[in-house]
Each structure stands twice: as structure tokens, then as C-alpha cells.
Amino acid sequence: MTYVSFPHFAERDAEAVAVIDPDGVRWSRARLARLASRISRALCAAGLEPEDAAAIVAPNCAEYLAVYFAAIDAGLRVVPVNWHLAEEELAFVLADSETKAVFVHARLGAARLASVRRAAARCEVAVSIGAAHGFTPLEDFVAAAEPRPLAPRPAGRVMPYTSATTGRPKGVLLPTRNAAAALERIVAWHTSLGIEVEAGNVHLCASMLYHSAPLEGAVTALHMGHAVVLVHRFHPEDVLALIERHAVTTSFMVPAMFVRLVKLPARVRRRYSTGSLRFVVHGGAPCPIEIKKRMLEWWGPIVWESYGAAEAQGVIVSPSDWLEAPGTVGKPISGSGIKILDERGRELRPGEIGLVYLKPHTGDRFEYKGDPEKTRDAYRGDFITVGDLGYVDEQGRLFICDRRADLIVSSGMNIYPAEIEQALLEHPAVEDCAVCGVHHDLFGQVPKAFVKVAIGAAPGPALTAALLDFLARRIAAMKLPRRIEYRQEIPRDPTGKLYRRRLREEDEHGDASAAERES
User: Fold this and answer.
1) What's the mean pLDDT in 279-285?
2) Does 220 have pLDDT greater than 50?
3) Does residue 425 contact residue 288 with C-beta atoms inside 8 Å?
4) What angle in degrees, to the nearest 10, is found between the helix axes of 461-472 and 417-425?
5) How far apart are CA 303 and CA 333, in angstroms?
6) CA angle at residue 83 from 79 to 89, to 5 degrees?
7) What is the mean pLDDT of residues 10-33?
8) Where are the alpha helices (DSSP H) in 351-460?
């Protein structure tokens, strides 16, 4: 395939739809490209140089993608920031990334905007999409820049921050010199999976653009000439309606979304057509096997699974291959590779659990910004780990067990919370759940489950007994939760990533915010 990009498609068919924003407004390719070009010139005119950082603290909107393309065009580091972060967390990311320009959205509201403005006090440029006190409106920012073209710059790259499950988040610094080659390999990977350039494709971004996978999915779709549909937030029935209304063909989702989709009443699921879907890929967390099977039964053989992180990608499994080995996340793609190593770096045999090391298929060699020691610890030659534990089978298929930081060691035996969670989610009374290791005087640690019940279920001793009986038929006795606590919500970010550390901290401090106490 000859490599193409969004500017190519914007020139070839300017009026084709590029983005449908969460309010239903349709942006043409020309409109999106024109705004990106104007923002790029304004950033250069404001004095930002290649490798400087520009942060986006905004909900999903077409302007978000315009700012992204503009910053890349200006050679900058794009820092997508979770706008749900506390002010101190925001300030840390903006300071650590050395952000010089920050873009916000008026939709965040006065209180949130004020906290962002304080956190971004040292930023040289502060721009708002819509009117916001203390920020320059985007229209004024771009109007002040001269309309003449600027000298081309090397392409910039996104600098995502890790989700910080074990301490401060770290910026993932990817080499800008490899930007064009990396994007070409990402597009080539998509085409190798049968996702064609243009071909009437419509991509649904079902999650927040401040996360790596949804952002890459949306950007890659635009580079392939696809239209992109954005959501305000994930709501299962709304997503089904969008799929039908816009004849969506591709999407990236996380397992928590699948759980909410399959637990919709059958009459609601039957109300919407999903026949336009051609390719849906999920990742970000282990997917319960029964949930995945139900999705395949419902949507057909178009549900793929990938494994990777902001630091590296390169593993995927087709629906048919997954059905041959339920639970696998697949094999490495061309240019990638997998190793399972022990703590001393020795490669383990098939079936033995160890740290998962992945070779990035893009050829990138990243750094954790400002942390050479953490960078060195992540690498073994060209392979890197993000702390996941897993194994490969005799056929080279990868299976993920859990994060090393989440491992529960009870009486010297390893217990993986994800396994217990997947079993719990199969019970019809469980809408969401999490499992953590808690202190035990004799065993060191034991599992504790936090459960959000489904509509119609009643938390209490009877349900606890039913859940434990249900689990006892699926997992070993040593893995059974010693306590079950019922909560109104399980703490997750908008993409479904579990804040397990928060639960551990709340449990240690005797937090009393649960809807129902332990049973």
C-alpha cells in the first residue's frame, strides 16, 4: 500500500465527513484540516519550538483532534491530560512534561477551568475552546497568527502519561525522528487486518481521547480516510444507537464496556442493528471469557483483541484463533516479539508464568521522561515490560495473568485478582467488581472483593453466600475472597481502567464511603 495520511484525504475530498462530534455536528475534512493548520501556525508564532510540549485538557470534541494534528505538524510533544485529575495531579503532569501551551474546553465548567489555570500558571500559552476566564479563546489565538505558510518542521509525537497504578505517572517519550515510520507501520498493521483505506469506514471512538488507545484509534482512522464519531462518555445504549445511526464499522473498546453491553436487557439489545460493524478490537484489561463469548455470539466474528501499552504494542488475536484458545491475547505481529522472563532475566518455558516482555512493532525505543533508572529497568535488550505477568503456550500464544503490582501472595501462593474478577462478573447479580489483596496476620494477604450489584439484586449476607458458592465452583478454595464489600460504584476511569490502588488505600484507612459494609 502507498502510504497516505489525513492531509492527503483532506485535499482529495475536502467535503467528506471527517468527524462527527458528541453533539452530532459534522466536520468536513477541509474544516478540520484548516483549523489544524491555523492552530499550527499560531503555535509557531507564539514561539514554541520542536520538542516543546502542548497539553490538551478537554473532553472529546472535534477541536481536540484539530489541536492534536496542529501540534504534531508544529513538531511538538502532544500531552493528552485526563481532565478528571485533581489539581495537584494536573500540576504535576504539566510541570513534569514542561508544557508550554495548554488547551482546555469551556465545557469543563468554571471550577475545573480555574484549577487547570492554576495548575498551568507557568505555561506560556493558555487557550480555550469556547469562552473561559483566564484563557485566550481559540478563535482569537489563531486570528493573531499570520496566514502565510511556515517552513516545514519534523513531525511531533504524542507523549502519553502512564495511568500511575503504582505511584506518580510517567511521560512516555517516543523518538520524533521515528514519527513518520511509526505511523506508517501502524497504518500498515491496520490494513493487514483487513481494515481498508476509506471504503466507507466509520470509526466510533467510544472512550476518552486522553487515553492512548482511543486517541491512536481515532487518529489512525483519520489517516486512513475514515470518518470518526466521538462520544461524550460511554453509555451502552447510546453507543448502540450511534453504531446504527452512523453505520459504524470499526471501534476500540475495553472489557468493562462489553460487560455493560451484554448486561443490557435483551429487548434493548435487539432494538439496535450492529450489522455495519466490520472490526472491533478490545484491550486494556483482561476480558472475562464468558463475556467475550457472548459478544462474539451477538456481534459475530468481528471482535478482535490486542495487547500492549502506551510504551509498546504488537500482539493481537483474531476471533477464530481466540475461540481455539479462549483467554489468549494472541501472538506478536510482524516486527514485534514476546519473551517471558523471570526476575533475573532468564527466559521461561511455555506454561511458566513470568514478566511479559514485548518488542515494539513500530521500532521505537522510548524513555520515561526524567527517569533513566525506570527506563533501564523496563528494558531487556530490545524488549520492554510494563509489569504484566503472563505465559505463552506451546503454540506461542500469550496469556496475561495480572499486573505484578496487583499480585496477591497468600501463604506463599500467587493469586491473580483478575481471575477472581472475571469469575465474579459472570454472576448475573454483579454489575462490576474489583479484587484486592488485604493484610492477614497468618497468611500475609488474602483476597477481598468489592462488588457493585446489578439492578434488582440486593446486597447482604444472602447474596454474599450465593456469590461465594458460585465462585467455589469456578476457582480454587484458596482464591475465594475472605470478605465481600458492596459499593455503589467501583472506582474506574472513563475508559474502564480500574483504580485498584484507591481501593487498597481506602481499605487500609477504613474508608466508610461504601454504600453497604462487608457481609
Assistant:
1) 92
2) yes
3) yes
4) 110
5) 17
6) 80
7) 97
8) 372-378, 417-425
What pTM, to 2 d.p., does this model score? 0.87
Nearest to 448, CA basis, from 490, 391, 412: 490
Contacts with 409 (C-beta within 8 Å, 6 or more apart), sequence order: 415, 437, 444, 445
Find the angle CA(463)-CA(469)-CA(470) to the nearest 5 degrees.
Answer: 85
Mean pLDDT over 268-293 rounds to 94
Contacts (Cβ under 8 Å, ≥6 apart) of 55 = 78, 79, 80, 81, 93, 94, 97, 99, 101, 102, 103, 120, 123
Secondary structure percentages of the chain, helix, strand, coil, to 5: 35, 25, 40
H or E element in which residue 214 lies: helix 212-223
Rounded CA-CA distance 467/486 in Å is 12
On the question of pLDDT at 164 being above 70, the answer is no
pLDDT in tens, 102-124: 999 999 999 999 999 999 999 99
Backbone angles phi and psi of 294, in degrees to 5: -65, -35
**Residue 99 CB: number of other CB atoms within 10 A?**
26
Contact criterion met (CB below 8 Å) for 105 and 21: no
User: Taking a C-beta distance cutoff of 8 angstroms, is the pair 138, 127 a contact?
Assistant: yes
Q: What are the φ and ψ backbone dihedral angles of 157, each rounded to 5 degrees?
A: -145, 155
Write out pLDDT tens, residues 359-395: 999 989 999 999 999 999 999 999 999 999 999 999 9
Distance, in Å, from the CA atom of 103 to the CA atom of 299, rounded to the nearest integer, reads 38
DSSP letter assigned to residue 108 = G
* Number of residues assigned to the chain: 519
User: Which set of grid coordinates corresponds to residue 271?
Assistant: 432494538
Q: Is residue 185 classed as helix, strand or coil in its secondary structure?
A: helix
Contacts made by residues 508-515, CB under 8 angstroms, sequence distance 24+: 508/439, 514/450, 514/485, 514/486, 514/487, 514/488, 515/459, 515/486, 515/487, 515/488
Q: What is the DSSP letter of 151?
A: P
pLDDT over 70 percentage in the chain: 95
Q: Looking at the DSSP assignment, which residues form a beta bridge with residue 202? A: 227
- Residue 488's pLDDT is 93
Q: Residue written as cell 481515532?
A: 218
Q: How confident is the model at residue 479 (pLDDT cuts 50, 70, 90)?
A: very high
Cell of 285: 484489561
CA dist., res. 67 & res. 151, Å (int): 19
Chain Cα centroid distance, residue 426: 23
Provide the 3-class DSSP secondary structure of residue 435. Answer: strand
Cβ density class 145-169: b for 16+ within 10 Å, e for less = beeeeeeebebbbbbbbbbbbeeeb
Q: What does 474-498 look like in DSSP terms, one character per residue?
A: TS-GGGS-SEEEE-S---B-TT--B
